[in-house]
Amino acid sequence: MKRILLVDDDMEYAGEFKDFFSLSFEVTLLHSEKDFYEKFNPYSFDLIALDIRLNGKKEGLEILEHIKTENPFLPVIMITGYDSTDYYTEAISLGAEAYLNKKKFNLTAIKKVFDTILEKSSLAKQVSSLEKRIEVLEPRDIIGKSEKIRVLKEKIKMAAEDGKMTVLIKGETGVGKELVARNIHRIGIRQKGPFFTVMIAGMPGDVIYSELFGHEKGAFTSAYSKRRGVIEESHKGILFLDEIGELDMESQVKLLRVLEYQTFSRLGSNKEINVDVQFVAATNKDLEKRVQENKFREDLYFRLKAFEVDVPSLTERKEDIPQLSEYFLSKMLRAGRTTAKEFSADIMDIFLSYHWPGNIRELKNIIESLCTYARFKNKEIIDSGFVSYLEGIVIKKSQEAQKNHILELNYEKNLAITELRLIEKGIKMFGRKKTKLAEKLGYNDRFVLLRRIKRCFEKFPGLKEMFSNAYDLFFQ
Length: 476
Known about the structure:
- The protein has helices spanning 11-21, 33-39, 59-70, 85-93, 107-132, 147-162, 177-187, 205-213, 230-233, 249-261, 287-292, 298-304, 321-334, 345-353, 359-377, 387-430, 434-441, 446-459, 468-475, and strands spanning 3-7, 26-30, 47-50, 76-80, 98-101, 167-170, 195-199, 238-242, 263-264, 273-274, 278-283, 308-310, 342-343, 381-382.
- With 476 residues, the protein is an alpha/beta fold.
- The protein has 4 domains: 3-131, 3-Layer(aba) Sandwich (Rossmann fold); 147-310, Rossmann fold, CATH 3.40.50; 314-382, Helicase, Ruva Protein, domain 3 (Orthogonal Bundle), CATH 1.10.8.60; 401-475.
- The strands form 4 sheets. It has a 5-stranded parallel sheet, with helices on both faces. A 5-stranded parallel sheet has the order 7-8-11-6-12. It has a two-stranded antiparallel ribbon with strand order 9-10.
- β4, α4 and β5 form a beta-alpha-beta unit.
- α14 (345-353) runs parallel beside α16 (387-430), α16 crosses α17 (434-441) and α16 (387-430) packs across α18.
- The longest helix has 44 residues, at 387-430.
- It is extended and about 95 Å long.
């Protein structure tokens, strides 16, 4: 239910108001300026009805000005018995959405006004959110039919329908982590609320703190006015924190409190502000490793990892490459940026054999480059004639990567063989008691020894017959 606050010192009218509106709204009554300042929170209500004169003074207008300073999106309707042009003009200039006379508007008529203004307020928040973020021209939906994408879509749906859980999106650079966050917003229960993105990487600690939590006027030297942070701006919506692993330790402490209690205070203020925000974070870093390095708080890590969404790399979902390629091609065609209408089989073979270190972002950039080249050559098919153009972009990289991969595998295999030979020699010299064997071979304990054996055989199962004593030791 939407939450309405009425501030009015007319007890009889306030009682009638509550009886009528409680059928449709959650109603709170306050009767004085003192009560208001003690109990008001800028994100606790969806609409405020306010009398202009409280205790015979124009306190209502001062309250209106304070509300609009704290939360410009919060609609305020003046409901009063004073039919004054001066009051009307002043109230509207301060940001009131409407000025209603109690004697001329009954409660049924007032409810119609409330319903209209609440709908308008919701739209205004969405428009503001759109204006304040740079739209990335990517597909709205997740493209692909692979099993990994099917699982990803299921997780997106779970997070979207819940609307409360904190989500941690994990994946390599360029896989589309922000697209996942936007889809959680697009199909979820918070779709009518705002969506804000904060790119944390490269932002200094003091700047990110102010960006997230806002500040009061005079909080620091250059704070010439009050500033609302993106946590406030995201009220009723979703805040996407990209590269959360780069967040400074002080901000991590504050963020953990917001995640736990949905409350925070601006820099330079002790006043707690309650918000309703779903937090979605993303990282391409190993947060567990950063915890061990004392670069990320363990309690925040555990809070974030309660619901993890893994976005597969393009190499892990190569069966989706043809569909993604067709999408990016059709997008260029619709925009009038290419004459190309299809890919030949040999070009698609190159795409499927390449390892795509830059993931979907790299695929998109290469296709745009090919499409531009096709337009220059006035070609309708991106075919074998484009291979020479691709050589310096994809084929050369692919050959180098394959060579490096082979060298890396050979190096790892040689290490595994050397280690297993030492373990086999140790078994012959010291016997099969794992604790003693681990001590003699220089491992911390028998569990480390067993993990090393397991890793060698998992990576290179063909070594089992060559080192049967070590293999038997692990399973005995």
